[in-house]
Amino acid sequence: MTSAQLVAELKGHWMVHLARIAAIVSGLFMVRGHNWARWLLVVWILFHLVISAMHSLTQLLLHAAIFTVILFFIFRRDASLYFTR
């Protein structure tokens, strides 16, 4: 693969790479207790919901279920206390 092909491929998949970076950044900073990081996680999962809606109903429902579980855990009272310390 030439460098021009590699650059073209990276440009074509920039949203995928950005989503991966967002997930990593969110995870790292959530461990450190940063509130904005859990909101970044919400945005990241919403991005996946939108993308999955373009594919199939099964993928949409699966991502919606994952989104619901994540929301439940990161916005519980204990988690909110952790992120507001």
Please sum up the structure shown:
The chain is mostly helical and 85 residues long. It is built from five helices and no strands.
Can you give a write-up of this model?
The N and C termini lie far apart (49 Å). Helix 2 packs antiparallel against helix 3. This protein has five helices and no strands. 6% of the residues are buried. The protein is mostly helical and 85 residues long.
Largest sheet: none
Outline = flat
Give the tally of β-strands. Answer: 0
Structural class computed from helices and strand pairing: mainly alpha
* Fraction in beta strands: under 5%
How big is the Rg? 16 Å
Helical fraction: over 70%
As an assembly, this protein is single chain
Helix tally?
A: 5
Name its key features:
flat; mainly alpha; 0% strand; 5 helices; 85 residues
Topology diagram in text:
Layout: H1 3-12, H2 14-31, H3 35-53, H4 57-74, H5 77-83
Helix pairs in contact: 2-3, 3-4
